[in-house]
Structures are given as structure tokens and as C-alpha cells.
């Protein structure tokens, strides 16, 4: 499904105009869940990094003895072992469409990063991010269609509530894949449509009528929230985005839905060199 997007100038001006109340309004319109979605998404994205992924085997079986460094478990008179594989710790992070920096801030609070970059084309959003997000972050005003980064620049690329505003999503996903380091991960959190019938009965009237009205009353910009409402209604299903990612060379693509599908986290990796395990 391809939705018709307004031009970039409209989107940029719309987000500039609603910056002062953007975060507060997001919390109200999401019934206080947007911050929780960010935190949950961050935990899922970073889960297992710097630790071990686990699989079980049996000592003395055809696969050989317990490997060095693995844990043994005693079950009756048989020894079981856990084979371990280190998941690399991401050291460089890029947030595309960072807005006021709330999603990136979740990741900055988990550890130190060698490099952290936030990109948006709204000057007002970037100004607020630089004033409210602590940490050594480079804030850049750039266009998604002309990202100024070399190939294999970032271990982790994230984006929160941005995909719906991207005019050419396959091209955007291709750019993200290009700038990921081998084995690097992309993670996109966005608003989607619930699938549960009873939830949809409430969700769609709220999305079509109440959200734009509340957004207008609080921010003073009706067109901005009409656009946000329409972008959710028209946005493709997460499965379609995953299919595009796989077609572009991403691997291990998966998704996690929140609040019956009102928000979805989509993830995928860039293939590592074949000589790595």
C-alpha cells in the first residue's frame, strides 16, 4: 500500500509549529503509552547485546563434549551444556527522525556510546532535543533522501514514529542498510493499526475524529494532526515493511506489537561477513 504524502516543506513546517507541545500531546493522544513503548522497544532492541544467546546440547552426544566457557547443568545422571555465542555490543547509534530526542534518550541512558547522532529536518525539534537530552550527541538537520554518512557507519540505526512520514520507504530502508555496519541492527518503532476487532471499533473513530480535534485544540495546528491521523490510517502493515527489508538484504527481520497493535517495533540486521559465526 502506498499512501500519498504531502511535500516535505509541509511536513517540516508542521513539525516546527507543534514542537513546543509535541511530547506532552503525544503522551495525551497515546493515553500515556508512548513513553512506555519507547522504553520497551529500547529493551527489546538491546536484549542480548554483550551477553550470550543460548542453545542446549548433551555432553557425550555426537556433537562432542561441553565447549570451553559454557555452563553445565546436571539433570539426573546426564550432563547438559549450554552453548554460548557472544552478541556484539553496538557502539555507534543513529536516530533518524529523532524529533525531540526521546527515543534516542532511552538508549543513551543504558550505556556509553562511542558516537551518537540524531537527525531530523525540523530545526525546532532539533533545538529542543539539544536543550533537553543530556549526553554527547551530534544533532544534524538533514534530509532522509540525502543522508551524509559513509557506508557501514553505524552499529545501530533507530527511528521512532517516523516511517509514516517517509515518502519513498524502500529507498529509505536501502539507505539505512547501506550505512549499517556488517551485523548492525535497524529498529523502527511506529504507530500502526490494531487487528483485534473490538479494539478497532474504538481505535478508528478515535484516530479519524478525536485525535485531529485534540491535536488542533492543544497545538493550534489542525492540518498537522490531520496528516498524522491520515498517515496511520494509510500506513502499510508491518509485514509489508518486513518483506521490503528482506528483499533489500536485511536478515533476522521480526516485529513486536504493543497495545494490541497500536504501535509496532520492526527490526532487522545487515548480514555479517561470511567468515564470522
Short description:
Helix content is 38%, strand content 26%.
Tell me the radius of gyration. 21 Å
Instruction: Give the full name of the CATH homologous superfamily of the largest domain.
Output: Vaccinia Virus protein VP39
Q: What is the CATH topology of the largest domain? A: Rossmann fold
Ranges where pLDDT stays below 50 over 5 or more residues in a row are 51-84
- N-to-C order of helices and strands: HHHEEEEHEHEEHEHHHEE
- In percent, how much strand structure appears in the residues? 25-35%
Q: How many structural domains?
A: 2
Gap from first CA to last CA:
37 Å
How much helix is in the residues?
25-40%
CATH C-level class of the largest domain: Alpha Beta
Spatial order of the strands in the main sheet? 6-5-4-7-8-10-9
Number of helices: 9
The shape, in one word, is globular
Structural class, by secondary structure, is: alpha/beta
Going by CATH, the architecture of the largest domain would be 3-Layer(aba) Sandwich
List how many beta strands DSSP finds: 10
Mean pLDDT: 82
> Can you summarize the main beta sheet?
7 strands, mixed
Structure explained in plain terms:
The longest helix has 23 residues, at 197-219. The chain has a seven-stranded mixed sheet, sandwiched between helices. Strands 1-3-2 form a three-stranded antiparallel sheet, with no helix packed on it. With 277 residues, it is α/β, with parallel strands linked by helices. Residues 51-84 have low confidence and may be disordered. It has helices at residues 8-18, 22-29, 34-46, 102-108, 123-132, 169-179, 197-219, 222-234, 238-247, and strands spanning 52-58, 71-75, 78-86, 92-96, 115-120, 138-141, 154-160, 180-191, 250-258, 263-270. It folds into two domains: 8-50 and 88-270, Vaccinia Virus protein VP39 (Rossmann fold, 3-Layer(aba) Sandwich); 52-86, no CATH class. It is 38% helix and 26% strand. A hairpin with a 2-residue loop joins β2 and β3. It is built from nine helices and ten strands. It is globular. α7 runs antiparallel to α8 (222-234).
Amino acid at each position: 500500500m502506498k499512501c500519498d504524502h504531502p511535500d516535505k516543506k509541509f511536513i517540516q513546517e508542521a513539525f516546527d509549529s507543534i514542537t513546543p507541545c509535541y511530547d506532552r500531546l503525544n503522551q495525551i493522544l497515546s493515553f500515556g503509552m508512548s513513553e512506555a513503548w519507547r522504553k520497551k522497544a529500547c529493551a527489546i532492541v538491546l536484549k542480548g547485546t554483550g551477553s550470550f544467546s543460548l542453545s542446549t546440547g548433551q555432553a557425550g552426544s555426537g556433537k562432542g563434549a561441553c565447549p570451553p566457557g559454557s555452563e553445565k547443568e546436571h539433570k539426573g545422571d546426564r550432563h547438559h551444556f549450554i552453548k554460548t555465542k557472544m552478541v556484539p555490543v553496538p557502539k555507534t547509534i543513529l536516530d533518524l527522525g529523532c524529533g525531540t530526542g526521546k527515543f534516542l534518550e532511552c538508549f543513551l541512558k543504558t550505556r556509553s556510546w562511542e558516537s551518537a547522532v540524531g537527525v531530523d529536518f525540523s530545526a525546532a525539534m532539533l533545538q529542543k532535543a539539544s536543550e533537553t537530552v543530556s549526553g554527547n550527541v551530534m544533532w544534524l538537520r538533514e534530509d532522509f533522501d540525502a543522508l551524509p554518512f559513509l557506508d557501514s557507519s553505524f552499529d545501530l540505526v533507530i527511528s521512532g514514529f517516523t516511517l509514516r512520514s517517509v515518502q519513498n520507504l524502500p529507498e529509505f530502508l536501502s539507505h539505512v542498510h547501506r550505512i549499517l555496519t556488517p551485523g548492525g541492527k535497524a529498529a523502527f518503532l511506529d504507530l500502526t493499526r490494531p487487528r483485534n476487532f473490538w479494539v478497532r471499533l474504538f481505535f478508528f473513530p478515535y484516530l479519524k475524529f478525536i485525535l485531529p480535534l485534540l491535536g488542533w485544540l492543544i497545538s493550534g495546528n489542525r492540518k498537522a494532526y490531520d496528516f498524522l491521523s491520515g498517515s496511520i490510517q494509510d500506513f502499510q502493515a508491518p509485514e509489508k515493511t518486513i518483506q521490503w527489508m528482506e528483499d533489500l538484504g536485511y536478515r533476522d527481520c521480526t516485529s513486536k506489537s504493543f497495545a494490541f497493535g497500536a504501535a509496532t517495533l520492526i527490526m532487522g540486521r545487515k548480514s555479517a561477513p561470511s567468515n564470522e559465526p
